[in-house]
Specification:
Residues 313-326 have a biased composition (Basic and acidic residues). Among the domains are: 1-14 and 625-714, no CATH class; 17-146, YVTN repeat-like/Quinoprotein amine dehydrogenase (Methylamine Dehydrogenase, Chain H); 259-302 and 338-401, no CATH class; 744-859. The protein has a 5-stranded antiparallel beta sheet, with no helix packed on it. With 950 residues, the protein is of the alpha+beta class.
Length: 950
Amino acid sequence: MVKAYLRYEPAASFGVIVSGESNIAYDSSGKHLLTAALEKVGVWHVRQGVCTKNLAPPSSNSKGLSVAVTSIASSSSSLIASGYADGSIRIWDLEKGICETTLNGHKGAVTALRFNKLGSLLASGSKDNDIILWDVVGESGLFRLRGHRDQVTDLVFLDSGKKLVTASKDKFLRVWDLDTQHCMQIISGHHTEIWSIDIDPEERYLVTGSADLELRFYTIKHDSADGQLIANKSETDVNKDLPTENKWEVLKPFGEIQRQSKDRVGTVRFNKSGNLLACQVAGKTVEIFRVLDESESKRKAKRRISRKKEKKAAKEGLEATEKGETDIGAEEGSNPVVTVMDIFKLLQTLRAGKKISSISFSPVTSKNSLATLALSLNNNLLEFHAIESSSTTKLSAIELQGHRSDVRSVTLSSDNTLLMTTSHSAIKIWNPTTGSCLRTIDSGYGLCGLFVPGNKYVVVGTKGGTLEFIDVRSGTCVDVVEAHGGSVQSIALTPDGTGFLTGSADHDIKFWEFQMVQKAGEGSKHLTASATRSLKMNEDVLVVAVSPDGKYIAVALLDSTVKVFYMDSLKFFLSLYGHKLPVLCMDISSDGDLLVSGSGDKNVKIWGLDFGDCHKSLFAHADSVMGVKFVRNTHYFFTAGKDRLVKYWDADKFELLLTLEGHHAEVWCLAVSNRGDFIVTGSHDRSIRRWDRTEEPFFLEEEKEKRLEEMFESDIDNAFENKYGPKEELPEEGAVALAGKKTQETLTATDSIIDALDMAEAELKRIAEHEEDKSKGRVSEFRPNVLMLGLSPSDYVRRALSSVHTNDLEQTLLALPFSDALKLLSNLKDWACIPDKVELVCRIATVLLQLHHHQLLSTVSSRPLLTVLKETLHARVKECKDALGFNLAAMNHLKQLMSMSSDALFRDAKAKLLEIRARNTKRIEARADTKQEKKRKKKQKKLDGGHVWS
């Protein structure tokens, strides 16, 4: 009988507040901050400091891989966009918390996303050097813009002129006309990569930031009604003396401002009102500039000119002043020349404690400050600062829900209800079921830990050689014992639960016994431990393990060996050698028969503890094996490695059962629950992940076949002819291409359409034969094909086409052979009669005609079909256009009637509804705050009363 195993699947991921690979962004209301948390988008309520939603893509993707979020953008509505490392983009409805659509087009990670003001268009830039414009409403790609020679770093819409400005690492700015889909201006001048660009809300100035020591500013010219480019209203004062403008010149250099920091620019952003500009560098500072209005900037220009005049007078004397008075006086007139220094004034420099990854201005301005700025730091922390005219005030921080550095150890309590994690400066106690942080205790650099029986205390071994005893209930460190002269590398509980062992880099193994002591001046006792005996080794001790029967101690040393001793007499029993690099982790099975060791040589070895023989050596990971744990009462075990993978093995059959993928960096540690129903892993990416055992059985042979299929699928993109064929040539200057890309989904959709066409053709033949038999008098009952689900042949093909995602339609039709394209075209004339399918029919017809134009011209049989389509489609499109126009006119008429019947201004019903909803939410929040305040005062009153009574 074939043995079945139970599958483990990803269940929860917690501990990450913000990952540094992506930007942060506020939603349109300003109440929530959107952050990237590896593969999820976290929605944080700014006021409450809690994560209200996690927007995560479905885990059931083809390879089971989790792809990191690399870019976030929010629109003026409730829609937000998130770009991923695999080039995909997801549009989310923030209110519902669901994914509206997935857009596939980029071949590299998405590096920049931006909505236009209406939120109907989305522009995306990527590491593949391309820019794609997406129709958010139609959920499809419009076109791809090519021209940059390196990664696109940022982009911004010029809504007034229907243009797009893009920046790249190739040091160039490009201005694209979205109507004609061509590059109309290329701006050079930067000496290094351009990292960020932005425009003010009124679209007067564009600012660019790079690794240069200055910020560059450009003035923007807008289209007039007749299509000619005109200057800004205030620009006449700025650039009077410049020569005649080029009509294609949209951006004109305005000037430069010297930055305070020498680090490269990370982000430049204007706030919503446009009176502040923030420049975040790839360091710990943000420079805040005040944007002066027209009258203030003119006054500043006049003061500058007058100071210049005074300096000149003082330098050259009175005669020289009289001589040059006419020139300066002309400059000092009612319209002085305003420079960039007159408009942008450095207000203050905000300094954070750690390196800043990204910034975002809140769209809502409070009464007491100019603006609120959110910072994401590279140590998994969010900060909120109020910017005032003379200083900045830190309002709050979101930090408790995650570690500031790597998770170095994970330990589960005996009843699996608590989880302890250690890092370089803190210990955290979690609820592993919900992922909520229960306690945070400051500590040394914790490398290992264990729960004391009873789960009221934990012991942590630190890098400094100390043992810290933590009271879980109060969240305090009750005792610190100087245990070793080197770092405590490993800690193991004795089977009887009365003590534990520690192994250290000072070559010592020490045996400890738990004690309850009472310090002088303290009312209650607390836990500590005293050393009873020690064992000296010749090398650093890396891992210590005790057999469940308490008979043996296994010690892994720096010389790549594992030595086994009798626990009672400490006499030498076995030496297990075979690893080429030191053993970093090991565990002993519940029955004491097997010992599994994982090493830096990427191998896992299974040893018998009876004779010390190596049962099997397995090449387990592509990098060092960092953790290994047996499932209790079985010979199954888990391993974790620096290759980001967690693997599930059978130690009796020496077979790999499952590979669990999900972490984005090295996995440092793992813990298995007592019942084996879940495991927990900690990683360099600061995430803690729980994997649950499901009721779904799987078989070893099926898993092997699945792994082979995945390997085959991953090699489709790197086929032999592609691998050794000529590389794709650089695109032409400002070239335009299709927005989509070929994926496994588009190939599957093409196959389903071809199958539907073949099935429909066969069914039509059967119907024709039946009609012929009927005419000849051979009466027989016609039985339709059951696979067609009771649909007619034409409807069945239409169903197959309608199931294709809108964004994948073009790429799906591109893969159709000409013969099938002809069959599809013959069906279009029938579908055009269905009102809600006219748009689909037109898209299919347009793509197929563009693709097979030459073949259709040379195929005589296709001409009657094309003639029918030309007449039918034109009439149907005109009908739809007339219907839409009539409906719009009727709605406008109703709007006018309603505004005439009432003195109040007509307002959109949806806007009013949203306003009422916002007002109700504010009331509820205010009520909740009042209740909380009352509770707090009541509690305080009780405490105060108790204190007086005592």
